[in-house]
Q: What sequence folds into this?
């Protein structure tokens, strides 16, 4: 027999990505950030911006593990979050109820947060449109959650197939969300500029009429390709 857990377990103090580093990711394309991390780091394709008009986000992750059909941990995350943060709410990808609605998002906006990301669902779309805070989720449902816990705040979470630690950097655009580990952020920024430069060069060649990149030509003309006719 085990003891009942506390309704909330909250870790308030964790290392955060430096504000200057977070700011350097503002406006970055998620696809380029992912390329700068070796082609990985994006959340599951089902986690997309609810409103295409309010999608761009770059902020520090404040993680919470809500579990299914409950959002008490979201309020714990809201309590410790700072301006510029992004609440990242893991629900075990539960689709029976929403995890947040327009009023919670309005509270997050009032605290200066820059977005909310969840592998669950949301509700009150019309109200969310009025709030204007970027929200990334797996869909919409009208059913409401309970606030019974147990939940945790400020601990690592797995969401959309990606492990996210509190203090990591969350970058979002219309294609979804990428998570940049805090300890790798500066190295990713360095590689990001190389990715941007390479894409600009290739885009220029495409505008000039390029119809096949050199690397593909090399493979197609080598003994690594077998032609049957």
A:
């Amino acid at each position: 027999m085990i003891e009942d857990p506390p309704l909330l377990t909250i870790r308030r103090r964790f290392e955060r990505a430096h504000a200057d580093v977070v700011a350097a990711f503002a406006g970055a394309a998620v696809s380029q950030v992912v390329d700068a991390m070796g082609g990985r780091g994006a959340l599951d394709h089902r986690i997309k911006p609810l409103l295409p008009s309010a999608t761009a986000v770059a902020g520090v992750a404040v993680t919470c593990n809500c579990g299914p059909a409950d959002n008490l941990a979201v309020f714990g995350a809201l309590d410790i979050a700072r301006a510029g943060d992004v609440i990242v709410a893991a629900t075990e990808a539960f689709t029976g109820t929403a995890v947040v609605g327009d009023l919670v998002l309005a509270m997050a906006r009032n605290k200066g947060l820059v977005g909310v990301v969840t592998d669950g669902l949301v509700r009150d779309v019309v109200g969310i449109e009025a709030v204007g805070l970027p929200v990334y989720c797996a869909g919409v449902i009208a059913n409401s959650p309970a606030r019974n816990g147990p939940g945790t705040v400020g601990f690592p979470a797995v969401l959309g197939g990606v492990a996210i630690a509190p203090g990591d950097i969350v970058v979002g655009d219309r294609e979804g969300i990428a998570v940049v580990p805090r300890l790798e952020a500066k190295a990713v920024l360095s590689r990001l500029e190389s990715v941007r430069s390479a894409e600009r060069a290739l885009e220029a060649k495409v505008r000039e009429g390029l119809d096949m990149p050199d690397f593909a030509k090399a493979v197609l003309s080598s003994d690594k390709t077998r032609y049957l006719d």
Observations:
- The two ends are 70 Å apart (CA to CA).
- The first strand starts at residue 8 and ends at 10.
- The helical segments are 19-24, 30-36, 72-80, 102-110, 125-131, 185-207, 214-220.
- The mean pLDDT is 95.
